[in-house]
Amino acid sequence: MKKFLSITTFLAICTGTPAIASTWDSICSKCHGIIAPSKDVLIKKFKTKEALVEAAKNSAKHKKMPFDNVKAFEKAAKELFSREVSVKSVQEDFRSFFTPLPSFPPIPKNNSLTPEKVKLGKMLYYDPRLSRSQLISCNTCHNLSIGGDDNQKTSIGHGWQAGPRNAPTTINSGFLKVQFWDGRALTLEEQAAGPLQAHVEMNATPKLIVERLKRIPEYVELFKKAFPGEKDPVTFENVTKAIAAFERTLNTPNSPFNRYLLGDDNALTSEQKEGMKLFVKYGCIACHNGPVLSDGQFHEFKWNKDLGRYNVTKNPKDKYKFRTPQLLNVAITAPYFHDGSVNSLEAAIKIMAKKELGKELSNIEAKKIKAFLESMTGEVPLEARVLPELPEKN
Q1: Is there a domain that residue 2 lies in?
Q2: What is the spatial distance between Cα 268 and Cα 129, in angstroms, rounded to a whole number?
Q3: Which segments of the chain have a pLDDT < 70?
Q4: At which of 202, 229, 251 does a domain end?
Q5: Contacts of 393 (CB under 8 A, 6+ apart)
Q6: Residue 364 neighbours by CB under 8 Å, 6+ apart
Q7: What's the confidence (pLDDT) of residue 35?
């Protein structure tokens, strides 16, 4: 699948006719290239713009295409066949392979995003009292000042225990289809519940957390405001909902890459644009697609003895499969892979190209792709990074 996509995307880029496509992109491309002949096919078939326009009128006459589009088609035909009009650069065509990051991810119906809930969730995210030792918070392993992770091979949790896998970033995590390397959580709410209880992480229990929070009057009031109408709002479920709500605000839509996708041609350097071309050409986009450059699927990556997805499903077909990691902010979330064994982004790029795509990248190619990935670094909202004043016990 990846090799097939690599070939087809490369052909699509290299054989595309370099012409201004303002009219074509806005009107004609809605049908042509999908259910009607592409512009390449049309140019090869018709030798002049007049012949193309005449064919369009004939198709409209027989109701094979909307009559209202004929005028636009005349303009598009002139663009396609004119030698005087400036051409559209091939580089700009790469925008169509990527999806801009929206300001917010999808919000579930059972956990609305409100200012009161986000405020509470932020405090809980930073509060170490949610851990058994009262020393570890969510921010300990997912530090919002350094990329939403801890830049460690694997995180250190309760009793100085080392976790089995590298901590993924919480930044832009609301856009992921599944959570954790093995996808054992489907939602951010489920994800938030995991580390709170994991014995190698925060090692708490729902009962312990609720008891502690209920002993803090300010928290009780905050829960009432965040979950109005509930008789007893201080629950473990609401703890995870509040944390998840806060995490859905940790988005970075103002990266150079996203600005480029939204029309700022100067947001990327020439080297980054060359890296983008290689990223598409070699098929990286087969798995790294969508708003966070992750398809949310599980792919085999046999790197060590970790069986990955198999530990969740017990399906032999899932052995050594891991969820495609997102690439937004990847330049500041080293080390890489599920075991955090690779410190260099260039090295990680070359390893993935060889193991997943069967491609030996040169140092120059890896450097260009790295530059492209660096354009995906954005800033977490300042409000989220400012440490909250946590409530004191009565």
Answers
A1: no
A2: 43
A3: 1-36, 38-40, 43-44, 62-71, 79-93, 394
A4: 251
A5: 215, 216
A6: none
A7: 55
Euclidean distance between CA atoms 368 and 59, whole angstroms? 46
Stretch (H or E) spanning 323: strand 321-323
Return the C-alpha torsion angle 302, 303, 307, 309, nearest 10. -70
Give Cα 188 distance to the centre of its chain. Answer: 14
Q: Is residue 42, in this structure, part of any structural domain at all?
A: yes
Classify the C-alpha dihedral 188-191-195-197 as positive or negative: positive
User: CA 128 to CA 170: how far, in whole Å?
Assistant: 17
Q: Specify whether the CB–CB gap between 373 and 334 falls below 8 A.
A: no
Q: Is the dihedral of CA 224, 229, 235, 238 positive or negative?
A: negative
Task: Give alpha helix (H) positions in 154-250.
Answer: 188-197, 206-214, 217-226, 236-247
- Cα 357 from chain centroid? 21
Can you give the pLDDT at residue 155?
92
Q: Are 346 and 367 in contact (CB under 8 A)?
A: yes
The CATH number assigned to the domain holding 342 equals 1.10.760.10
Q: Per the omega criterion (within 30 degrees of 0), is the bond before 106 cis? A: no
pLDDT for position 69? 60
Q: What is the pLDDT of residues 277-307, one digit of tens each?
A: 999 999 999 999 999 999 999 999 999 999 9
Query: How far is residue 215's CA from residue 138's CA, in Å, rounded to a whole number?
Result: 21
Domain that holds residue 188: 115-251
User: Among all residues, which ones are annotated catalytic?
Assistant: 201
The full length of the chain comes to 394
What pLDDT does residue 113 have? 96
* pLDDT, tens digit (0-9, with 9 covering 90-100), for 231-272: 999 999 999 999 999 999 999 999 999 999 998 989 999 999
CA gap 103, 248 in Å, rounded: 10
Strand partners, 149: 143
